[in-house]
Specification:
Chain lengths: 158, 104
């Protein structure tokens, strides 16, 4: 085979995958952020706090443990870019937005679940982040991250 | 069984402490879900299969904690915390713990 064709194939395929995942990954992320903003506006009426005590004056008629979680992963392109970044150090913007997405999603899921069950506020909120191995073949290159939000939902009397 | 992440069950008073109760489960990934997650890993975004898997496992850890609390005679668990650890490639431990109490 012509060596140029071979080089083209060797380099071209990963490059194509990179470009394609860049497009798809960015589109998925933009859509997710748009949805997050909409849902956040919709659920704004429910107070969520990390305080451990019920604010004075609130009449609590019931409570329950509520959780919300989300596992997200970077796309191939961003993982590649992040890999380069690791050589030079500095801010890994792609991981920042990834964690931001996961955290907001987990919080929203917790709020939405509490709201559906008739609760009107959540206190004692905790956020936990843990790394989940996305596939067994590669080690140490895990991009999958789980964020768990937990809290105590309150049913309020009037 | 009342569960809360705060120091007491809101609106109730703690009458008796029974100490720490725990519940845990170790889960390996499902092969089908893993292949899907592997594909999803290329384009990024949420790995729904994993979210569900972990949620289900965490529920089981909670149930085990509740069972332990019941066996010591508690009617509530306060200060519930979760922790997740990757113990080996492809498996994770989901752990829930809290303080068993009797509230009124």
């Amino acid at each position: 085979m012509d060596p140029w064709v071979e080089i083209g194939l060797q380099l071209g395929v990963p490059l194509l995958v990179l470009l394609a995942t860049y497009g798809i990954g960015s589109a998925v992320e933009r859509r997710h952020f748009r949805l997050l903003r909409m849902r956040e506006i919709r659920s704004r009426s429910m107070p969520v706090a990390t305080i451990l005590e019920v604010p004075p004056g609130w009449e609590v008629t019931g409570s329950a443990l509520v959780t919300g979680s989300c596992v997200v992963s970077l796309d191939y392109f961003k993982r590649f870019v992040a890999g380069l970044r690791l050589l030079f150090g500095g801010r890994l913007a792609s991981y920042e937005t990834l964690l931001d997405r996961a955290r907001r999603e987990a919080l929203l899921r917790m709020k939405e679940r509490a709201h559906e069950a008739g609760y009107r506020a959540i206190i004692g909120v905790r956020l936990e982040t843990s790394q989940i191995a996305p596939n067994g073949r590669r080690d140490g290159r895990t991009a999958g991250v789980e964020v768990l939000a937990s809290g105590t939902a309150l049913r309020l009397g009037r | 069984m009342l569960l809360s992440t705060t120091e007491t069950v809101p609106g109730k008073t703690i009458r008796e402490f029974y100490g720490v109760v725990t519940g845990s489960t170790v889960r390996a990934k499902h092969i089908g879900k893993d292949i899907m997650a592997g594909l999803k890993n290329i384009v990024g975004g949420e790995l729904k299969g994993y979210t569900e898997l972990l949620q289900e496992a965490r529920q089981e850890a909670l149930e085990r904690m509740v069972a332990q609390a019941q066996s010591v005679g508690a009617n509530a668990v306060v200060n519930v915390r979760f922790s997740t650890s990757n113990i080996t490639q492809g498996a994770a431990e989901l752990f829930a713990y809290g303080t068993a109490v009797r509230v009124e």
